[in-house]
Fold this sequence. Notes:
By secondary structure, this protein is mostly helical. The protein folds into two domains: 7-90, Recoverin, domain 1; 103-157, Recoverin, domain 1, CATH 1.10.238.10. The protein is 61% helix and 2% strand. It is built from eight helices and two strands. The chain has a two-stranded antiparallel sheet with strand order 1-2. Helix 2 crosses helix 3 and helix 2 (18-31) packs across helix 5. The longest helix has 28 residues, at 75-102. Mean pLDDT is 82; it is low at 1-15.
Amino acid sequence: MCPNFSAKESLIMVTIDARNFKHIKEAFRFADVSNKGYLTSNGYKKAIIALFGEKPSKGEKEAIFGCDRNRKLTLKDFTDIILSREKENNREQQIHKAFFLFDLESKGFLVLEDFVKAQLNVFPHLSHRVLEKAFSAADVNNDGRISYREFHSVMSYGFPFFI
């Protein structure tokens, strides 16, 4: 039997599956104690705990509510925030996995040889010279290694212009 969602809720579901939306909606309703159709800062905290089992950080709450502690989040606002949070978590996981695909020996850093091997599998047409330049651009502190932090930065923001 299909759940009965309003037209507005159906639009939200275009980007998430029904099961996830159901959990988001349940957490929202659980935290909306007065049944007003919105969450305050404290309601948001309660909903996040219900969904993820942990409190949102102060920075996260400040990013959402800023100085306006009276801001009210609708179900759509809350859903958008959760989707953004999940997208960010997925991106972080992908970067982490990618790093360990390059770091086959689990050293915690990449040397030029690791970088070249991995890149040649993905981009066999690139010259060794171009790969060396890319490695140098990613090796911000010039220690001959690309740390996870340097790798993360490149994966998040792109290579600095190097050609």
